[in-house]
Amino acid sequence: MKKEANTIVNALKAKKLRVTPQRFAVYANLLQRSDHPTAEQILKDLNENVPTSSQATVYTALQALREVGLVREVLLEPGVCRYDANLEPHHHFHCPCCGVIEDIPWDTFQPLNLQRLRPGITPERYQVTVEGVCDRCQE
Ligand SMILES: [Zn+2]
Ligand SMILES: [Zn+2]
């Protein structure tokens, strides 16, 4: 999911976000990976080449990106917030053993019949989280 620099700039501009080096770097990093990193992992990645980012700037950039809907939070473990730039509807596989989270294509499962919910509930969205042991942990 690697995107060209101007595609990233245009995505930020389309959401009326001012393009700052931190927002650009954080969003570009998230688009390049599908491992649902935490803010700390993004920070570590960004500082690999030039150590310029601080935890606060990464958090601030993530918050701005989340508010305009370019990234979303994935909360599968208590107290751990991970980030995802894949906005297509999809499900997640989570291995609690090593913490890995990977995407499951939406059409892997039959759609749920939301009509069967009790009256009075207005469903807006759902997604499936499959918990289990990944191949690496099985070895
Ligand atoms: Zn695992
Ligand atoms: Zn995902």
Structure description:
It is a single chain. The protein has two domains: 5-84, Arc Repressor Mutant, subunit A, CATH 1.10.10.10; 90-138, 2-Layer Sandwich (Dna Ligase, domain 1). Helix content is 33%, strand content 17%. The chain is built from five helices and five strands. The protein has helices at residues 5-14, 21-31, 39-46, 55-67, 135-138, and strands at 72-77, 80-84, 90-94, 101-105, 129-131. A hairpin with a 6-residue loop joins strand 3 (90-94) and strand 4. The chain is globular, with a radius of gyration of 17 Å. Bound molecules: zinc ion (2 copies). One zinc ion binds at residues 36, 74, 84, 86, 90, 92, 103. The site of one zinc ion (ZN) has 7 residues, from strand 3. This is Ferric-uptake regulator. Pfam families: FUR. Keywords: DNA-binding, Metal-binding, Repressor, Transcription, Transcription regulation, Zinc.
What descriptive keywords fit this protein?
single chain, 139 residues, Arc Repressor Mutant, subunit A, Dna Ligase, domain 1, 2 domains, two-stranded antiparallel ribbon, FUR
Break the fold down into its secondary structure elements and pairings:
Layout: H1 5-14, H2 21-31, H3 39-46, H4 55-67, E1 72-77, E2 80-84, E3 90-94, E4 101-105, E5 129-131, H5 135-138
Parallel strand pairs: 3-5
Antiparallel strand pairs: 1-2, 3-4
Helix pairs in contact: 1-2, 2-3, 2-4, 3-4
Short structural summary:
The chain is an alpha+beta fold and 139 residues long.
